[in-house]
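User: My collaborator and I are trying to settle a disagreement about how two of our proteins should look. Neither of us wants to argue from intuition anymore, so we agreed to look at predicted structures for both before our next call. Could you fold the first one, then the second, and keep them clearly separated?

Assistant: That sounds like a sensible way to settle it. I'll keep them separate. The first protein:
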Amino acid sequence: MAVQTDDQTILQKYPASIEASANIEIRAQVAGILERIYIDEGSKVKAGQLLFKINDHPYQEQLNQAKANLSSAQADLQNAELEVEKKTRLVDNKIVTEYQLKAAFAARDAAKARVGQAESAVESAKINVNYTSIRATSDGYIGRLEKKQGSLITMADPQPLTVLSDVGKLHVYFSLGENDFIAFKNATPGNTLQEKLKNLPPVSLLLSDENVYEHQGQIDMVDGQFDKNTAAITLRATFDNPQGILRSGNTGRIVLQKEYSEAVLIPQLATREVQDKVFVFTVGPDNKVTQQSVEILAKSGENYLVESGIRAGDRIVYKGIDLLQDGQQITPQPLAKDSIH
C-alpha cells in the first residue's frame, strides 16, 4: 500500500485529580462542650447556616460580668465628672488650689479610659458568645464529622470539626511532560502564556466510568515550574458543577484535542515492535523490502501518525510482515485505501 496523508484530530488523555474550588476547615474559635450538631456527613449547606453549637453558658456569664463592669466604670466616670465640676467652682472662688482641679481632671480621664476598657471587654465577650454558634462560611458539602455531641473541643484540636467543600466549581489538575507542554504551547496562538490560556478551546473530562462529564472546562492555570522528579508540569482546568455530581477527591482524565494537518498515516497492522522501536517494511522500485524504523507521533484509532522514517507516497507492506525478511523480493498486490481496517 502507498502511504497516505490526512488531517487528523487526536484525543489525548491525561490522568487528573479533582478538587473542590475551596476546602474549608471548620474549627472552633472558643473552647467548650459541643452541645449540638445540626448537620450530617455529606449534607449540602448554605452560607451562614448553623452547623454546630458550643455550650455558651460560661461565655454568657463572662458577657454579663463585662456588662456589670461597664456599668460600674460608667458610674465612676459620672462621679469623676461631678468632682471636676465641683472643683472648678471652688477654684473660681479661690477655695481650693489649681493643683486639686488638675488632679480631678486626671481622675476623670482615668475613669474615661476604664469605660473604654470595659466597653472593649463587653464587645470581646459578645464575640466569644457568637463564636459558640459555628456557621458555614460558604455553600458546599459537609465532610466527615470528627467530633461527637458532648465532646470537649478546643482551638488547639489537631483535627477540624469537619471540612466544608465548595464544589460549585471544580479544579481538575493534570500534568504534561516537557515535550507535550512545548508542543501544547506551540500549537496555541498568543504571545504570552496568559494570552495562550485565553485562546485555548474548552476541554473535556472523562470520568472513571469512561463517561464524558456533561460540562466542559477551561484551562486557566499553569504551574510556575516543572517537577524535578517527574519532569512534568501541572495544569488546572475549571469545570462548573451546578448539580454537585462530582466531589472533591474524584479522579478522571482530561481530554485534549490536537489537530494535525496532512499527517502521515500508517496502519498499526503494518508495523511491528522490536525492543521498543516500531518498524515497517518499505517496498523499493525493485519490489525488495527493507525494514525501516519509524518515529511515532501519535495514535489515531487503528493508525499511527508518523513523525519520521517514511513519507507520503512510500510503499509499505500491509499484511504478512511477520513472514518477511530484510531484502526479500515480493510481488506486491495494490490495496485500496478504503479496504484498510
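The second protein, kept apart from the first:
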Amino acid sequence: MAATEIEVKVPHLAESVSEAVVLKWRKLEGQYVKKGDVLLELETDKVIIEIPSDANGLIKKIKTPERTVVHSGQSLVVIEPKEDGADTYGTASTECNTEIPTKTIHTCLCSQTRSHRLERYEALSGLRKNLIQRLLRVHKSSITLTTFNEVNMCSVIKIRDMYKHAFTKKHGIKLGLTSFFVKAVSIALKKYPILNASIKGDSIVYHEYQDIGVAINTPLGLIVPILRNTERMNIRTVEKSISNFMVKAIQNRFAIEELRGGTFTVSNGGIFGSLLSTPVLNPPQASILGIHSVEQRPIVLIDKVEVKPMLYLALSYDHRLIDGKEAVSFLRTVKEALEDPIVLTLDT
C-alpha cells in the first residue's frame, strides 16, 4: 500500500463481541467519497455499525465483500486521499459487485402426502449466528444459578401515577417503571459490590462504578446499551437516557461505545408478558436481573388476604464468584427498595 493511502479498519468491538459481518457496502470501488461519508455497515450480535470515511478521496480497493466475517482492526477498504471528485479509476459501476445475498430461501415439497406441506429454509443472519456462539460461550464458561423473589409494586405504581403527568410536562419524557428498578439495583450494588464485580484470569475485578446495561428490543433483536455511572444518576436522568436509547433502537443506530462495557444488566421480559424466566448472563458480567409483568395476585398482609399488583424478580449469577447468601441478600435489598420507593429518591 502506498504511503499516501489510507486504510479504514474495523473499530474495536464491544466486550463479548468477537467478530462482525460486512452487511452492506454503501460506496463502490472508484467512487469519490468525503470525510464522514458512510462507506459500509457492519453487523454484530448487538448492533449495526456505520463505518465512515476517514478522509476525502477515491475508494481504491474494497478488501472485504458483503457477508464477510471480520474482526477488530481488520482492514476493510483502501482510500487514496484526493480533494476533488475526479475519478482516476473510471466511472464506478452502478451495481455493487461485492454483494452476496443476505438470505437464502429454499422451499421443498413433501410429496408423500396428498396435501402440499411446504418447508421454508432461511439462512441464519450474522447477528443470530454470533448470538448463538455467545450463548454457547456463556454456557461453557460460567456456573449460573438463579434466585427468585416477588415485589409488591403498589407503592411504585402509586408514585408513578401520581407524578407521571407533572414529570412529562416538566421533562418532556414519560415516567416508566424501569428507572425505579435501575435505582433499586444501584442501591443494592452499593451494599453488595460483589454483584458488580467480574472475574479476570485469577483475579476478582471490583468496579468502583456502576455501568448498568438495560436490555432493549430492536428490529434485529435484543441489545444492551449501557447507562454509565448510575450511582450518580437520579430517576430523571435514568429515564432521559432510556428514552434516548429507545429512539436509537427504533432507528437501529447505536454507537459501539454505547454498548461497550457494563458491570450489571437489567432485562425486562415483562414488556412481552413474561411472568417468570431465568435471564442469561452477559459476560464478563457476573449477574443479571430479570423483571417481569405485573399481575394482580392475592397475598397475605398482616393476617389478611388482599389482591395487590405483584411482580417476580429473577437474579441469575455466576456461582464461581457470587455465593448464594450474597445473591439472595442483594435481591431482597432490591425488593425492599421497590416496596419503600422513597429511598430511591434519597442519596443513601
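Some points you might bring to the call about the second protein. Residues 89-113 have pLDDT under 50 and may be disordered. DSSP finds five helices and 21 strands in the chain.
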